[in-house]
Fold this sequence. Notes:
Elements: E1 10-13, H1 21-24, E2 31-40, E3 44-45, H2 46-52, H3 57-63, E4 67-73, H4 79-91, E5 96-101, H5 103-118, E6 142-146, E7 158-163, E8 168-173, E9 181-184, H6 194-209, H7 219-241, H8 246-266, H9 270-282, H10 286-308, H11 313-326, H12 333-346, H13 362-370, H14 373-377, H15 384-393
Parallel strand pairs: 1-9, 2-4, 2-5, 5-6, 6-9
Antiparallel strand pairs: 2-3, 7-8
The structure holds nicotinamide-adenine-dinucleotide (NAD).
Amino acid sequence: xxxxxxxxxxxxxxxxxxxxxxxxxxxxxxxxxxxxxxxxxxxxxxxxxxxxxxxxxxxxxxxxxxxxxxxxxxxxxxxxxxxxxxxxxxxxxxxxxxxxxxxxxxxxxxxxxxxxxxxxxxxxxxxxxxxxxxxxxxxxxxxxxxxxxxxxxxxxxxxxxxxxxxxxxxxxxxxxxxxxxxxxxxxxxxxxxxxxxxxxxxxxxxxxxxxxxxxxxxxxxxxxxxxxxxxxxxxxxxxxxxxxxxxxxxxxxxxxxxxxxxxxxxxxxxxxxxxxxxxxxxxxxxxxxxxxxxxxxxxxxxxxxxxxxxxxxxxxxxxxxxxxxxxxxxxxxxxxxxxxxxxxxxxxxxxxxxxxxxxxxxxxxxxxxxxxxxxxxxxxxxxxxxxxxxxxxxx
Length: 395
Ligand code: NAD
């Protein structure tokens, strides 16, 4: 056995811990760029929402002598958005970046701080569609503060960017991009509406299942995944039904964090293998796409292993997944698949046709998915026919 494990330099977790940002930032630089999600019109962002919850981040930072600028992200990030962010940061002599929001804001801050330190064009460094240029310098100081519980982007080594030219979402990736500080304050997720709680929460659940059954799990990610599955399965439904249930929100924040730590060190699988190309092609929200795929990927992965790789240790691992998520020590894989399908139904997750997916697009989606780094982590190599079947079922 051999493995590496990298994560954020420091992780601060807990209710009201957003306040720690005022202690940490002055040590990192004076000119701060806050990259944040737009939540609603006009220009109402996570920063405004947090101010309404009683903590004015900008005022607090100004009182310490820091200067702040806002860069507002109103969609999942594209290459163009990152280039605009880089130009804005250069114009304002930015020394430190803070991503406060969902995965979109965090990935945007992460990508901007990486390219600022490494210079050149963002696209050259991208996986799959780039020129294979490597990130060789550590990002500018970067703090990540998630306000959704889903992606775990606060501790991962990649930023997912869409290319309009290539109709695909791909990653910028390097351990040198991992945040210097991740502040996870579950209270910040209490304002997330039910539909986004559902889709981001199923992303979190997927991210503690896929690394557990990937080709390269390790004992650290195994422990994180087991605990993450336990917390997400007992609390996602509760957080969806009652967004102010802080214990449930806390569980989902832990699951999301553990998913990020796991995926960064043990890869993912077919759900995320499909999600990149599907997100780039149809522009549906990442969590919702993962949610629509999860039960079908589990079902087909298990069938494929039974048919042609019966000694694959992941068959047993999928049974363990079923036992944990159903909280039933006698559960079978089929019980696990049913439990996921029921949850997806309860959380009112739409099929992928709702985002415009059509059967005639399957060959292109399958071709793009097959080369993604997540698909390479899947427990078994799926055939074209199996991939086709997953997409059909997720329609
Ligand atoms: P998101 O960041 O796009 O946010 C979804 C929506 O939630 C937005 O409309 C946003 O304004 C709103 N929102 C966020 N916080 C809120 C709050 N506290 N209250 C009310 N509304 C709030 O969604 P996401 O699922 O967190 O992130 C998705 C992005 O992350 C995608 O681009 C995906 O590809 C990427 N991703 C990255 C990684 C990684 O490791 N870097 C992993 C998985 C996914």
